[in-house]
Write a structure and sequence with these properties.
The chain contains 13 helices and 16 strands. By secondary structure, the protein is of the alpha+beta class. The chain is globular, with a radius of gyration of 27 Å. It is found in: Cytoplasm.
Length: about 475
């Protein structure tokens, strides 16, 4: 029986300054190399850091010939010995083993993670094993750091963590691309002539997986002042691009008594905190991404951290785009949504992050506050260099009559949003919030090209393994 938490992590071993000292490590074999001098070099990793720890296993160990010399990549081991300064280049320490105990053998003939490099596309077929690779392991450590940073930031800002429902009867975005949730036997219904009766379903009404927790978050912001959601969201969009997932995680703060300016300041502080935490807590992994995945990534993140975000209205942005000599794939005109190529150009011209505001009301959802000009809404998109939009948000429409008019213009049935309308009847206040997709943030921080490689188990059209 292995006692919990009585061993030393490899990350602690590799950075230790207390030498020599006895340690016990547990992990998986990455490589084994036998020496003619009567010992074997084992590279062991336990996932706590990018680098491995070299274990020197002498032939005098009782299981040397029977087990140690048969170890292959993927085998799990417990090693006891003395941590000492390493004479080899590129590593500060190594472990001289007194014992090597094999916990789990690995079938070397069928184990898919061989020494050769595999494409990220191929690794997606082995999502249950790909975290053992250097790149995916580093991605998941950074993803963890970003998640921890999000919670700590909003706690420091006085926000309450709110769990909004995964199953909802409301379509926040109004796009209709939602997954239907039902307990009815669809195969049986398909073979009958009976009409689909939602009264016989579990909730007795049409329900779907949520695309956003924003509307529900607004209800609690009007009671607790500041809340944020952080959980899975779902979109039934038949898209196979490198930037889309069917299941993804969203963080959505919502604050009562906030206007658009407050919202922009919160978003800027938020991104600077998250990126700073990644650089300060994931130094080795970030150096890996900087060298192997996207050159200059660290400097790009430092630029976002150090430079004030420039503010620009949508109208000013369109005028700049129309006046420039750049050739865009998509034409630019006032009243159309900006594409990623337009957003990247704007950040390159400014030389840093940009917050675009005051978008045409015709291209934005019903809940965004209509401006005094009647043509625009108090919306914002935060653009970062190299990618474009990373955050979208707005001040919400708090006026009952204006909200009702906007819903009617959008063809929404007010009775289906009766509770949302009630928030404007009973003690309405200005309030604002934004949304950030966790995977988009991880993709930006790491420089990974495909969003499917920054989530443990990607859900995309035609793919729902594991």
């Amino acid at each position: 029986m292995i006692a919990p938490m009585d061993w030393t992590t490899i990350d602690a071993c590799r950075t230790s300054t207390e030498l020599p000292r006895p340690v016990e490590i547990r992990g998986w074999i990455r490589t084994r190399r036998d020496s003619k001098g009567g010992f074997s070099f084992l590279e062991v990793n336990d996932g706590t850091s990018l680098g491995n720890l070299q274990v020197v296993a002498p032939a005098e160990l009782e299981n040397y010939a029977e087990e140690i010399q048969k170890l292959t990549a993927g085998c799990s081991v417990v090693v006891k010995g003395e941590l000492v300064e390493s004479p080899a280049k590129g590593q500060a320490t190594e472990l001289h083993a007194n014992s090597v105990r094999v916990i789990g053998w690995c079938d070397g003939e069928t184990y898919p993670l061989q020494k050769k490099r595999h494409s990220f596309e191929k690794l997606r077929e082995w999502s249950h094993l790909r975290a053992r690779t250097n790149t995916l392991g580093a991605v998941m450590r950074v993803r963890n750091r970003i998640s921890q940073s999000i919670h700590r930031f909003f706690d420091d800002e006085g926000f309450n963590y709110l769990h909004t429902p995964i199953i909802t009867a409301s379509d926040c975005e109004g796009a209709g691309e939602m997954f239907r949730v039902t307990t009815l036997n669809l195969e049986k219904l398909a073979g009958s002539n009976r009409p689909f009766d939602t009264k016989q379903d579990f909730f007795q009404k049409p329900t779907h997986l949520t695309v956003s927790g924003q509307l529900e978050a607004e209800t609690y912001a009007t009671a607790l002042s500041r809340v944020y959601t952080f959980g899975p969201t779902f979109r039934a969009e038949n898209s196979n691009t490198s930037r889309h997932l069917a299941e993804f995680w969203m963080v959505e703060p919502e604050a009562a008594f906030y206007d658009l300016h407050d919202n922009m300041q919160l978003a800027e502080r938020f991104l600077k905190r998250v990126f700073s935490d990644c650089l300060s807590h994931c130094g080795e992994d970030m150096e890996f991404f900087n060298e192997r995945i996207e050159k200059g990534k660290i400097d790009q993140l430092k630029s976002v951290i150090e430079k004030p975000f420039e503010h620009m209205t949508y109208t000013d942005a369109v005028e700049r785009l129309l006046a420039c000599d750049e050739k865009f794939e998509y034409p630019v005109e006032w009243g159309t949504d900006l594409q990623a190529e337009h957003e990247r150009y704007l950040t390159s011209v400014v030389g840093g992050p940009v917050i675009l505001t005051d978008y045409p009301s015709s291209i934005k959802p019903f809940y965004m506050r209509v401006s005094d000009d009647g043509k625009t809404v108090a919306a914002m998109d935060v653009l970062v260099p190299g990618v474009g939009e990373i955050i979208g948000g707005s001040q919400r429409e708090e006026r009952l009559d204006v909200l009702q008019r906007r819903m009617a213009e959008g063809g929404l049935d007010e009775s289906e949003y009766w509770w949302y309308v009630d928030l404007r009847r009973y003690g309405t206040v200005p309030h604002a919030g934004f949304g950030l997709g966790l995977e988009r943030a991880v993709q930006y921080v790491t420089g990974m090209a495909n969003i499917r490689d920054v989530i443990p188990f990607p859900r995309t059209p035609g793919n729902a393994e594991f």
